[in-house]
Design goal:
Layout lengths: L1 E5 L5 E18 L2 E4 L2 E20 L2 H11 L7 E19 L2 E17 L9 E16 L9 E13 L10 E11 L2 E10 L2 E10 L2
Antiparallel strand pairs: 1-2, 2-4, 3-4, 4-5, 5-6, 6-7, 7-8, 8-9, 9-10, 10-11
C-alpha cells in the first residue's frame, strides 16, 4: 500500500510502504458420507510464511528520520511465521424434485506465530475463528431434453468472526445473497454483501456445480 502526504513546503512528499508475503501451506482433509445427503469434512492445514516491509520516501532527510525513529519496528522489518488451521464442515447435497439444494456449515480455527524476527520488530502471535453458513438452491430452467442444461442458482450465506479479536475489522459478520446462471458444469453470478457497517458486492464462479 502507499500513502501520500502534502509537505509543509510547496513540494509534495510521498511515502510508500510495501508489504511482501511468501506463503506455503499443506492441507489434509477427509469427506465422510453420513447418508441422506449429509457429509462430514474435517481438515487440518499447516504452513510457513515470510513477511517483509519496506518503506520508500521521496524526501531523503525525512526517510532517515523515520528510519531512526521507526526503523525495524513499524517500517523496514521482516519476520517468518508459522500458520496452523483446523476445519470442520457439515455438508449437504440433495435433490428435491426439480430443485437441488447444497449447503454447508463450516467452523475453522487459525493460529499464527512469528519467529526469527528482524532486530527491533516485536513479533506477534494471534488466533481467530470463523463460522460460515451457506445454502444454494438451483433449478433447471430449460427443457430436460435440451442437450446442454441451463439452470438458475440462488445463494444465501453468512460469515461470522469468532474470538476476542473479532471486532478488529470494525464488523464481526457479513451476509451474502445473490443469483447465478449456470450451463453444463459452469456457473457465474453476482452476490450482494451486507451487514452491520458492511456493504458491497462480489462475483462468484463455480465449476463442476
Amino acid at each position: 500500500e502507499s500513502q501520500r502526504f502534502d509537505g509543509v513546503a510547496e513540494d509534495r512528499v510521498w511515502l510508500e510502504s510495501e508489504w511482501t508475503a511468501y506463503t506455503g501451506i499443506v492441507e489434509l482433509g477427509l469427506i465422510m458420507p453420513l447418508g441422506a445427503g449429509f457429509s462430514l469434512a474435517p481438515g487440518l492445514s499447516a504452513g510457513l510464511s515470510r513477511l517483509e516491509n519496506e518503506l520508500e520516501v521521496s524526501d531523503q532527510d525525512l526517510e532517515e528520520l523515520l528510519q531512526l525513529i521507526y526503523g525495524g519496528s513499524l517500517f523496514n522489518w521482516s519476520t517468518n511465521a508459522t500458520i496452523g488451521r483446523a476445519h470442520l464442515a457439515l455438508l449437504y447435497d440433495q435433490r428435491h424434485g426439480r430443485y437441488r439444494v447444497k449447503g454447508g456449515a463450516h467452523l475453522s480455527y487459525a493460529y499464527v506465530d512469528s519467529y526469527s524476527e528482524s532486530s527491533g520488530f516485536a513479533g506477534f502471535a494471534d488466533h481467530s475463528g470463523t463460522a460460515i453458513f451457506k445454502v444454494d438452491v438451483s433449478r433447471r430452467i430449460n427443457s430436460d431434453t435440451a442437450k446442454r442444461p441451463l439452470y438458475l442458482i440462488g445463494h444465501l450465506g453468512n460469515t461470522s468472526f469468532l474470538g476476542d479479536n473479532r471486532h478488529e475489522l470494525e464488523f464481526d459478520y457479513f451476509n451474502e445473497a445473490g443469483l447465478s446462471l449456470g450451463i453444463d458444469k459452469y456457473a457465474l453470478g453476482v452476490l450482494t454483501v451486507f451487514g452491520s457497517d458492511v456493504s458491497g458486492w462480489s462475483l462468484t464462479f463455480n465449476y463442476n456445480y
